[in-house]
Amino acid sequence: MNTKPTKEGNSVIDAYHDYAIVKWIVDKPVNAFEDGQWLIIQKAEEEKLIEVTVSLPKDVLDSSIMQEFETYYLSDGVSRTAQLWNDQRRQIITDVVTNMLLPLIEKEVRMLLTIQGKQWVARECGSSLWNKVATAPWGNKHEDHAGDDEAPRVLAACYGGSLKPPTTFVMLDSSGEVLNTLYTPHLVSESQSGENDPRKHNDLQRLSKFLIEYQPEIVVVGAAGQRSLTLRKEITKVFLCCPTLTL
Q1: R_g of the chain, CA atoms, integer Å
Q2: Alpha-helix residue ranges (DSSP H) falling in 134-217
Q3: Any bridge partners for residue 183, and if so which?
Q4: pTM over 0.85
Q5: Contact of 4 with 50, CB cutoff 8 Å
Q6: How far apart, in whole angstroms, are the C-alpha atoms of residue 140 and residue 132?
Q7: pLDDT at residue 156 in the model
Q8: Which sign does the torsion angle of CA 147, 149, 152, 153 carry?
Q9: Are strands 168-172 and 178-183 parallel, antiparallel or unpaired?
Q10: Which of 63, 96, 159, 222 has the greatest number of C-beta atoms within 10 Å?
Q11: To which CATH superfamily is domain 143-241 assigned?
Q12: Is 90 in a helix, a strand, or coil?
């Protein structure tokens, strides 16, 4: 299998693009696909960002396939007429192999790689899901909650900066129902004023009131990038400044 970028793909697919690993593939044997890479290739091809070629190596085609056909279909005659008929037979064999058999083989290879890739993804998803469900639930370490079987109150946080949606906090009750949502577009400030930004100070105050009102027992921060670490630090500062908040 070989892949190469289209004109659009060459400009779109950079080193950090999802399709970068399949932008250039040279003579990779189809039996070397053991994971879901073919599904990435297939998607990139559908988006017309790469061109895919599935073919037999020319030496194999000439030395094995064509010779095998010629063994069965060419005449052993040595006359001029026999040689002319053999030339016609070679043309027919080449046409059949090139325009009929190889396209069917490519179609079969693509189908098998798709099935294999989906099975691999399903196994990986199953393994990941099992690792999650096989993990013990969060244990409440506070003595005043000892023996309490009620699920903890969870605050979910996700960095968004000043984008839409901005940095968001979602408060869930012990049943997993959404209690309230808070948007803080300037909590993780991107401006040069940083800590002195009055908009950030306002978001910190709003977050502090939000936490005091709902008293979350667990805070989960979505790991969406380096800014998520900054968001975690800002949340930690609020907890340290409010003695009524504990985790």
Answers
A1: 31
A2: 198-214
A3: 168
A4: no
A5: yes
A6: 19
A7: 93
A8: negative
A9: antiparallel
A10: 159
A11: YqgF/RNase H-like domain (3.30.420.140)
A12: helix
pLDDT for 101 equals: 86
Q: 78 is written with which tokens?
A: 């040595």
The DSSP 8-state label assigned to residue 85 in this structure reads H
**Torsional sign, CA 19, 21, 24, 26:** negative
> Contact at 8 Å (CB) between 3 and 22?
yes
Q: At what angle do helices 37-46 and 102-133 cross, to 10 degrees?
A: 120
Which pLDDT does position 146 carry in this prediction?
46
Q: Which residues of the chain have pLDDT under 70?
A: 137-149, 161-163, 189-195, 245-247
Residue 12 is which amino acid? Answer: V
* Tens-place pLDDT, residues 33-74: 999 999 999 999 999 999 999 988 877 777 777 777 777 778
Domains in the chain: boundaries: 2-133, 143-241
Cα 114 to chain centroid distance, Å, stands at 16
| E strands, the chain, in order | 2-5, 50-53, 154-158, 168-172, 178-183, 218-221
- Residue 163 has a pLDDT of 66
In 70-129, DSSP assigns E strands to: none
